[in-house]
Design brief:
By secondary structure, the protein is mainly β. The protein contains 1 helix and 9 strands. The protein has one domain: Immunoglobulin-like, CATH 2.60.40.770.
């Protein structure tokens, strides 16, 4: 049986780890249609900070690659809180990366959530559409919103 002192030390270490701000974390990504061969491949998503803090800026960086040259297009972003759609937006792809995009590139999106955003787990579904609305890729990933951080 562990001594009271060793249990207290472990509890203190765990509490310190929970209080440390997370800078950037890799997030697992799933394709919307697992059997489809998308022309744009996503290799990862980084969210900073993780968890996202209400009322503070958060950056979503999507690492991608393609053999085509993307001159223009759009991103459609849908956000769900549990099973409820809570946000939807469309962005110009060239506003999120340098166009023309080809080879390996990063789509970077910054968003400041309202300070009253409820904490918990959210899911983003992002479609990347080409200039003729052809679906270049469709991904889904989760992220967390923490409690309001003290300033």
């Amino acid at each position: 049986m562990a001594s009271k002192q060793s249990i207290l030390v472990l509890a203190a270490v765990a509490a310190c780890l929970l209080l440390l701000p997370a800078a950037t974390a890799a997030t697992s990504v799933e394709y919307c249609n697992k059997g489809k061969q998308y022309p744009l491949k996503v290799s990862g998503v980084e969210i900073s900070p993780d968890p996202v803090q209400p009322g503070k800026a958060a950056t979503f960086k999507i690492s991608a690659s393609t053999d085509k040259s993307i001159e223009k297009g759009k991103l459609t972003i849908d956000v769900k809180y549990f099973f409820f759609y809570v946000h939807s937006e469309t962005r110009d792809i060239c506003g999120e990366t340098t166009c023309p995009a080809s080879g390996e590139f990063v789509l970077s999106h910054e968003q400041t959530l309202p300070s009253f955003t409820p904490p918990g787990s959210y899911t983003i579904t992002m479609k990347i559409l080409g200039d003729n609305n052809e679906e270049l890729s469709c991904i889904s990933f989760g992220f967390s919103i923490g409690f309001v951080a003290s300033s």
